[in-house]
Predict the 3D structure of the following.
Amino acid sequence: MKRALVTGWAGFIGSHLTEALVAQGIEVVGVDCAPPRFGEITSLTSNSLFHAVALDLSCDRLDEVMSGCDVVFHLAARPGVRASWGGDFDAYVTANITSTQRLLECCWRQRIPRVVLASSSSVYGATIGPSCEDDDCRPISPYGVTKLASEQLALAYARRTDSPLSVVALRYFTAYGPRQRPDMVLGRLLFGALSGMPVTLFGDGTQRRDFTYVSDVVAATIAAAELDCREEVINVGGGASVSLIEAIGVVSRVLGVPIPLDAAEAQPGDVPVTSADLQTAHELLGYEPTVSLADGLARQADWLRSLDPVRLNVYGLDLAGSRR
Ligand code: NAD
C-alpha cells in the first residue's frame, strides 16, 4: 500500500484511520463532504502525506481523486439507528447505498485492486449470542438494511470477472474513543459525568454492546488492506459484550463521579445484544482487541476534558457554568 483513498476521513473512525496510515508513511487522499465535527485535526492538516478533498460521493466526480490509489477504505456513511426511521430514510439511501455504488463503479473503472468497506454489527439484527459472519442477517432498523445493502453491493462488484477488484467488508461493533460521534452512548455517558447534565438512557440498561476501542478498529482495518482474498466479511469487535448498566458503572468508576440519568423508552431498531465472534478476524487478520473498556474510556475522558466549550456544544447543551 503506497497511496490510499479514505472516504469519510473527517469522521470519527476515518480520522483515526487516516492518522494511522499517514504515521506509517502511506500517502492518503481523504474525501468527505463535511469538515471534522470537533475542529481541525492538526496532525493531518500539517502533514504533506495527507490531501483532503471536499466532495460528496453521491453526486461529485470521483475518478481524479482515486487515480493512482491502490486501496480504497470506504467509511463514509450516514450512521445512526434511531434517525433512520421516518422521513430521513432518503438521506440514508443516498449516503449508504447510492454513494457506495458510485464509488464502486469508479473503483471498477480505475481498476482498483482492494476496497475495505465499513459495515456494521447492525446487519445481524436481534441476536442473543455471539454473531458469526455466516449467520443470517435480519436487520431490525432501516440503517442496518442500508449497511447490509452497501456491503452486499461491494461483494457483488468483487464477483465481477472483468476487474481485479477485491473486497473486505468489516462489520464494526460499536466503536468508541476520542472524536466519537456525539449521538453514541459512551460519549454521552462521559459527557454527563463530566458536566453533571442528565444523560438519557433508552430502555432498561440491560441491552449489551460489544464496545471496540477505535485503535483496535483501525488495526483491523489496515490489516484488511493486505489480506490475500477476493471477498471476505469479517467481524471487528472489542472482545466482550457489556450491558449498559455495567458500562455506566465503569464510566462512573473511571471518573469517580455518579452519572445523572433520565429514563426513556427503548427505541425501535436498538438491538438487545451485540456480540462478535472474532475467530475469523483472528485467523485472517491476526486481530486481537488490545484496549480494555476502562482504559479506553479513560482516554476518551481525557480527550473530552481537553475540548474547548465551543466544541463541546456538539453535544447539544449549553455548558456555561455546568462543567465539573
Ligand atoms: P462519522 O459520521 O463520524 O463519519 C462518517 C463520515 O462520512 C462523516 O465525516 C460524513 O461527513 C462522511 N460522509 C457521509 N456521507 C458522505 C458523502 N455522501 N460523501 C462524502 N462524505 C460523506 O461515522 P463513524 O462513526 O466514524 O462511522 C464510520 C463508518 O463505520 C460508517 O460507515 C459507519 O456506518 C461504520 N460503523 C461505525 C460504527 C461505530 O460504532 N462508530 C459501528 C459500525 C459501523
Summary: The chain is about 35% helix and 15% strand. The first strand starts at residue 3 and ends at 7. The chain has a mean pLDDT of 94. The radius of gyration is 19 Å.
